[in-house]
Amino acid sequence: MAKEVIVTADKVKNRKKTMKIVRKSLFILLIFLIILYIILDIIYSEGKFTVTLDSNKTLESGLAIFDSLNNGHGKRKLEATPIKFMDNISYKWIPDTVDTEADGSHNGQNYIAYSFYVENQGNEILNYHYEVVVDDVIKNVDEAIRIRIYRNGEDVTYAKRNFLDNEPEENTVPFKEIKNAEGTIILEKISDFKPDDLDRYTVLVWLEGDDPDCTDALLGGEIKMHMVITEEHIEQG
């Protein structure tokens, strides 16, 4: 009988040891998942759209970006307010006043709208270009994304070429495909930007429901992108 008691005690001891290992493993897994979530949250930041000056030298030259005329102090980086969910809509649903209704973030239902300024606060004539870069795409949601950029009231709408025939989508300029610049989909140059010149921009982003590529396959998709302003100094003769 004593032998049976010893065997049972060993089993209980081993079971407790196993449970301790399992609890410890689950705790480690939980910590890992929390850390992974934090990292992904930092990376994606809920799809935030940012506008950035390319270097500190740009600030020194006098080229400045800001998102309010009440505060024209140049910043290194501007950040739009994200929206957590974007359903497909038609461009016809977007208000005609979207470019002029507000500064900074003024998102609507199912679209991102962000207005800001570029000013030459220096003493020399500059050229600069703006570039929109896609950092990551999930489930090919870029097939139906539209990006409309207003500059001083004039707008251009950009989109990826149609998946089936590789032709531009209706009333859009195709995303660029630039060698050695993977991810750059928009690149435009502004020339002869004089001291005190001021450009007003609105960047509008939505998922176009009338796009033939806007199908149920895009459900759950995500896109992360940013805009960079880069100065080109003009040598004075």
Structure, explained:
Helix content is 21%, strand content 35%. It has 237 residues and is an alpha+beta fold. It has helices at residues 2-44, 56-61; strands spanning 50-53, 63-66, 77-79, 104-105, 111-120, 126-138, 145-151, 154-159, 173-174, 184-193, 198-207, 222-233. Strands 2, 4, 5, 7, 8, 9 and 11 form a 7-stranded mixed sheet that branches. The protein has a 5-stranded mixed sheet with strand order 3-1-12-6-10. Strand 7 (145-151) and strand 8 (154-159) form a beta hairpin. The protein folds into 2 domains: 1-44; 48-233, no CATH class. It is extended, with a radius of gyration of 26 Å.
Number of domains: 2
Tally of helical runs:
2
Number of strands: 12
User: Which structural class fits the helix and strand makeup?
Assistant: alpha+beta
Mean pLDDT: 81
C-alpha end-to-end distance: 106 Å
Helix content: 10-25%
Unreliable segments (pLDDT under 50, ≥5 consecutive)? 36-46
Run of helices and strands: HEHEEEEEEEEEEE
Q: How much of the residues is beta strand, in percent?
A: 35-45%
Largest sheet: 7 strands, mixed
Question: From the alpha-carbon coordinates, what is the Rg to the nearest angstrom?
Answer: 26 Å
What overall form do the CA principal axes indicate? extended
- Give the oligomeric state: single chain
